[in-house]
Amino acid sequence: MAEIIESGGGGHKKGGKKRPKKGSTRVDMTPMVDLAFLLLTFFVMTSTFSKPKVMSLVYPAKPEPNEKPAEPINNAITFLLTEDKIFYYEGEFRATPGDGKPATKLSETTFGAQGVRKLLADKNNFVLKEKAKLEAKLLNKEIADSTYTRMLIDAKKNRASLKVLVKTDVKASCKNFIDLIDELKINDIGVIAPVDMMASEEKLLNAEIEK
Amino acid sequence: MAKLNMPKSAPSIDMTPMVDLAFLLVTFFMLAANFKSDDPVQVSTPSSISDKEVPQKHMIMVTVDPDGRIFFGATGEETKKQIIATMIEKRGLKLNKKQVEEFVKISSFGCDIAQLPAYLDHTSIERQQLKWTIPADSTNNQLREWINVAHQAALNTGKKEYEDESSKTKDKLEVNDYKPIFVLKVDGKAQYAKAKRVIETFRDLNINNLHFVTSLEENPYKKQE
Fold first, then answer.
1. Which end of chain A, N or C, is surrounded by fewer C-beta atoms within 10 Å?
2. pLDDT in tens, B195-224
3. How far apart are CA A7 and CA A21, in angstroms?
4. B46 part of contact set with chain A, CB < 8 Å
5. Distance between CA atoms of B105 and B70, rounded to whole angstroms?
């Protein structure tokens, strides 16, 4: 301890050398401790630890006025989002039966591991399998990092990979939308297109909600 | 029987270890802290697995709060100075020097252009009480104007910075690092329709690559490994 205990001064003769009185060298630390804890409290209160992250999403460019409508894409799935509910159908939308195919029926699924994630994992099997293969190769050092990234992008662009269209109605919240996009990213969907909902789809969706 | 020898001086505790610990923690928090920004609204963002960090430079950010109010912000003092200078010129705004300084200081704002001088006169606490927003209707899309002006300003400052920094080093710098990044901070509870107005405004300006601010959550697939 930083303290020198004053000796009684016994044994000295009277009239000996006069020494300055030895005071205690102990420093009172209380104010310093106060300050330290004040600062500590301040920094604990004001600091935020988890830095926010960003999720990138590329929207399709707006079509030019006289541009031809895009060709129908194969292997597509369309999600219709409404307040905390999620519906989907596969392929093209048909309001009425035609070309020997029945009219589109909506199926409901849920946000979360058992619902939409499982569905996407099944449908996007091709890309996920490719990814697993590439990852194994990467681990064995058969391919380089850059090759891995390039090949993964190629796989995502492949005809066999799943394309996803996301359509939201007015009642859906941003959380619903971002949750769905997140699920798509988890399942490595390469082509994500948030597009407007058609009137006929909305009609079908509303009929489905009321059921 | 031995006599118990009580110390005569007042009992005292050695505080040194406690002080050591306190200062250690202070140092840690000081270094690790990144301060909460003084945003006019608190927005709770949804979570995603994305681990890309929010860029600190050349960012143009639009915030949508739970009620669908729209806020606009940009990073970089130089960029903000250019934005406000352009807007004063274009709109004939009358701002005094103090208001311009305030505009450069704040991280984001949300009000009609006509209300801007009054908005800047308020303190940051008063601003949280205001119920103002940036109009983004098709008839009066001021957001579009802000984004457009900010895009130009951010491109200019980014270009200047790129030239400055590449003249200093011999390394080849990535041009894309100096281009503005468009960030959308939406509250989870906000209606998508409101966010869509903002997204459509971006897309009208041919800005299709948007970034959504999210908090991090674990990738369920990585966890299994």
1. C
2. 888 888 898 888 888 898 888 877 777 644
3. 11
4. yes
5. 19
CA distance linking residue B16 with residue B19, whole number of Å: 5
Bridge partners, residue A56, by sequence: B211
- Confidence check: pLDDT of A32 > 50: yes
Asked whether residue B26 is assigned to any structural domain, the reply reads no
Q: Is the pTM of this model over 0.80?
A: no
Q: Which residues of A touch B49 (CB under 8 A)?
A: 182, 185-186
Of A1, A57, A61, the CB nearest to B210: A57
- Lookup: tokens for B39: 């945003």
Dist. CA B145–CA A11, nearest whole Å: 92
In whole angstroms, what is the distance from residue B25 CA to residue B31 CA? 10
Question: For residue B222, what are its two tokens?
Answer: 């990585």
A138: domain range?
Answer: 125-161
Quick check: is A81 in a domain? yes
Q: What is the pLDDT of residues B132-175, one digit of tens each?
A: 888 888 888 889 899 999 999 999 998 888 888 888 887 777 77
User: For A55, phi and psi rounded to 5 degrees?
Assistant: -115, 120
Is pLDDT at A10 greater than 60 in this prediction?
no
ipTM score: 0.76
Query: What gap in Å lies between CA B61 and CA B63, rounded to an integer?
Result: 6
* Residue A192 tokens, joined: 């994500």
